[in-house]
Design a protein that fits this description.
GO terms for molecular function: microtubule binding. It is found in: Cytoplasm, Cytoskeleton. Belongs to the RMDN family. The chain is mostly helical. Helix content is about 75%, strand content about 0%. It has 13 helices and no strands. The longest helix has 21 residues. The protein is globular and about 50 Å long. It starts with a helix and ends with a helix.
């Protein structure tokens, strides 16, 4: 297992998405949580490639969720299993409509929070909690109506809360000297400052996002 994980991490670092998926899917019946959450991530990364068809994207999203769920069952104390379960649950919501997506919102946030409890220095999870906050701050009125019918107290958030989380992310990256600063975080910092009518700071972060070296499909979209 250790050798497979080492090879997988090398392929992930090299951006070899298809090779990584082919390597890990051979071990989909493994009982190792470290291997299974990596397979969930690889399935999701493969789904995001522009060469992947719409039907394959859907299939891979559900596969990824199953792998992440299995990783959690094998080791509830694995922070990455919680993180990728939350991410994959959110992805599946895109195929099941707004009611399901809003209904899953609290579960998603709980798993992100559990991931941070288990690993407070994981910059990506802090960023993703920020995205969660932003998505509810930006929720249109008709979605708020749906949320109100699903929950006595629907999930709400503010741009100020997102900005606070993003600065936590920035601090975490500086503290851990994380080289993968994550382009999407830069973009959302810029968008948040626009919402707060601070155009000077918005320009700063959007410029950083624009200049970020595009390694992945997501970086290019950003």
């Amino acid at each position: 297992v250790e050798e497979v994980i080492e090879q997988a991490d090398y392929l992930y670092g090299s951006g070899e998405t298809e090779k990584l998926y082919r390597l890990l899917v051979q071990h989909k019946n493994s009982d190792d949580a470290e291997l299974l959450w990596r397979l969930a991530r690889a399935s999701r990364d493969l789904a995001q490639l522009s060469s992947t068809s719409a039907e394959e994207k859907r299939q891979l999203a559900y596969e990824a969720l199953e792998y992440a769920k299995k990783a959690l069952e094998k080791n509830e104390a694995n922070f990455a299993a919680h993180k990728w379960y939350a991410i994959c649950l959110s992805d599946v919501g895109d195929f099941e409509g707004i009611k399901t997506k809003i209904g899953n919102a609290f579960v998603i946030k709980e798993h992100f929070q559990r991931a941070i409890e288990l690993n407070p220095k994981d910059a990506t999870t802090i960023h993703l909690i920020g995205i969660w906050c932003y998505s509810f701050a930006e929720m249109p009125w008709y979605q708020r109506k749906i949320a109100a019918t699903l929950f006595a107290t629907p999930p709400t958030s503010t741009f100020q809360e997102y900005a606070a989380h993003s600065h936590l992310k920035l601090f975490s990256c500086l503290y851990t000297a994380d080289p993968n600063f994550y382009s999407k975080n830069l973009l959302f910092l810029g968008k948040t400052y626009l919402k707060l009518n601070n155009k000077k700071m918005a320009l700063l972060w959007l410029s950083k996002a624009k200049e970020y070296p595009a390694h992945t499909e997501e970086d290019k979209q950003v």
